[in-house]
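Step 1: inspect the first sequence and its tokens.
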Amino acid sequence: GWVDMENSVGVIGIGAMGTPMVENFLEAGKAVFVFDVSKEAVAKAVAKGAVAADSPKDMVSKTKTIVSIVPNDAVLKKIAIENDDAILKAEDCSGLVHISCSTVSPATSRQVAPVHTQKGAEFVGAPIFARADGVKRKEASFVVGGAPDAVKRAKEILDLTSNRVFVFGEDAGAGNVVKLCGNFMIASAIER
């Protein structure tokens, strides 16, 4: 049951950033479900104690909190909405919070968010600022935007794998705007 749902999290995309996040969630005592197109990445996560989900859609029957960290906008749309086995193709998405930690455009977050709401789910844009080697040490920041109750749940989960979670109001794209500015500032600083 419900108790397990409360203490669980799903992670879609277990690459350089997702892998240490999975480890931090496991160390915090969460039941962690994983999905990735890379069978090797899944096998490694399972060896550490995670449980493989068959698809993003399948994950919804196991947990009500899903963190995704995927390469780009197109992949986010595929796993969330477009694919036959996408998150929102699950029978019952009510109460689901999808926390997107990918670096995507604000427009993508704002486009994806209402589709979640129609299904009784919430989408939280929460791009990660970190180097991959810093994530394990929780040297990561997340900039979060979305509905207040969903943001509260996102913060509880992200606190387990970061040292700072900044909340930027109810715009699901707000974090992505800050991320783009942040990347620009980092690039500018390097150029000098």
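Step 2: inspect the second sequence and its tokens, then contrast the two.
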Amino acid sequence: MSILTNLIILTDMNQLPLATSFGLNTNLLETNLINLGVVIGVLVYFGKGVLNTLLDNRKETILSTIRDAEECYKEAEDKLQQAKARLQQAKLKADEIRVQGLAQLERERLELIKSADEDSKKLEDSKNGTIRFEEQKAIEQVRQQVSRLALERALETLNLSLNADLQSRLIDNNIGLLKNLDGMSD
């Protein structure tokens, strides 16, 4: 404070007579401006180092934050590129799976058609076999009926045309044949 007082006194000396040069200046406006200039000068002189340190620290903090942001940006960009690459691989894999699925579907469709054709052929063969069996059965039944009817007619014809004398000769003739056969075998 004494420096300020001396400065105030020195500036006021030009206006005051020499005897009154020591004292207090009561003009607040003049003294405040001078005091304010002195305080600012002292602050600039002594606070310059502190202010520079604070500004340097702030500058380093900002630069560090910018570097961190740039690193994060680069990492995010790398991750994005990796994600794009994985997405592309996934798309390729999905296309491959889709193509394989379509190929498998086509193979199964062809196998199903082939199997259905084979089943149809087997059914056709079975049907034809059944038809042939039924035809053979019907032919055999017709043969048996024809044979039976032929025998019945032959018996009827024999019964009608055979009389007792003819039957007797036929029996004698067959007995003679049997005796001849028996005599040959001895």
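Step 3: confirm your contrast with the notes below.
Confidence is low (pLDDT under 50) at residues 1-14. The radius of gyration is 69 Å.
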